[in-house]
């Protein structure tokens, strides 16, 4: 699944932050997670990536 996430992001010319990949993998495994990061850092993308798969 990590390879799929990386492929989608790179094909969209998005370079993910480490926390985005980590959080997306946790969400894909069906676990709850709390993400703290600054405004505009891409927290919403962590939620959207698993929804696309």
From TrEMBL:
Domain (DEAD/DEAH-box helicase) ranges: 19-52
MF (Gene Ontology): ATP binding; nucleic acid binding
SUPFAM superfamilies for the chain: P-loop containing nucleoside triphosphate hydrolases (SSF52540)
Regions annotated as coiled coil: none
A Pfam family per the record: DEAD
UniProt xrefs under InterPro entries: DEAD/DEAH_box_helicase_dom, P-loop_NTPase
Protein name: DEAD/DEAH-box helicase domain-containing protein
Source species of the chain: Paxillus involutus ATCC 200175
